[in-house]
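User: Quick one: structure for sequence A, then sequence B.

Assistant: Sequence A:
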Amino acid sequence: MLVLSRKVGDKLVIDGNITVEVVKIQGNRISLGIVAPSNVKILRGELSQPKVDAQTFEIVVEDGLLVAC
């Protein structure tokens, strides 16, 4: 992971066609502006993880015995 320090107005350019700009810093929150081609999918980290429904579970049975739920 690359870790950088940036100030408001500073930009990062990724692969020549994606620009990330620090728009605002307020307390422990920052606002980022992202400019990218329309074919680039941009998701918040928590949205890129598969969502597990509270009602969803898996049952594992080995040799007729329940081993995981």
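Sequence B:
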Amino acid sequence: MAQTTISIRMDDALKKDFDNVCGELGISMSAAIIMLAKKMTRENRLPFEVSIDPFYSDENMARLRKSIAQMEATGGTVHEVNYDD
């Protein structure tokens, strides 16, 4: 099978961390990327969940707005947030 070369750009710290993890697993970065490509093409999907940070969920934002309003209403005093609301 013919081989080809790809080039990607990433943050230097990420590359170092990725290389360290691959080294701990006993594989090269190229082998890890090839494994990812094979799994994606075999399954026609990303092999992991991609999601938005739950901190920014509508529920949490509403809870934060309520907490801020409560704090402002009490002049910034300490209060408890009821997570059951």
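The first helix runs from residue 12 to 25. The chain has a mean pLDDT of 88.

User: Thanks, that's what I needed.
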